[in-house]
Amino acid sequence: MRPLLIVLALVALVLLVIGIAVETLKFLLYVGLVVLVASAALIAVQRLRSSARR
After folding, report:
1. How far apart are the C-alpha atoms of 9 and 15, rounded to whole Å?
2. Residues 36/39/43/49 CA torsion (nearest 10 deg)
3. How far is CA 46 from the centre of its chain?
4. How far from each other are the two terminal CA atoms of the chain, in whole angstroms?
5. Closest by CA position to 32, among listed 20, 42, 40
6. Taking the mean position of all CA atoms in its chain, how far away is CA 17?
7. Residue 34: its pLDDT value, please?
8. Segment 23-28 long-range contacts (CB within 8 Å, at least 24 positions apart)
9. How many degrees, rounded to 5, is the angle at CA 18 between CA 21 and CA 7?
10. What is the pLDDT of residues 1-54, one digit of tens each?
11. Of 30, 28, 8, 32, nearest to 20 (Cα)?
12. Confidence (pLDDT) at 38
């Protein structure tokens, strides 16, 4: 009975770590998308300004 409890505790710990990692990766994915959109907008503004000066 005791080895079964140890195995179940290890499985629960692994699943907990995987769950936290997935949530963190989701958050980082959204942050990455926001940074990508912001950089694309800044590049577009820079190109518009440079073409307007000509």
Report:
1. 10
2. 140
3. 27
4. 80
5. 40
6. 16
7. 94
8. none
9. 155
10. 788 888 899 999 999 999 999 999 999 999 999 999 999 999 999 999 988 877
11. 28
12. 94
Distance CA 11, CA 19 (A): 12
Q: Extract the tokens encoding 1.
A: 């009975």
Give residue 27's pLDDT.
92
- Residue matched to tokens 């940074």: 35
Q: Please tell me the distance from the alpha carbon of residue 7 to that of residue 17, in angstroms, as a whole number.
A: 15
Token pair 């995987």 is found at: 18
Residue with tokens 């820079």: 46
- Note the pTM of the prediction, 2 decimals: 0.65
How far apart, in whole angstroms, are the C-alpha atoms of residue 54 and residue 18? 54
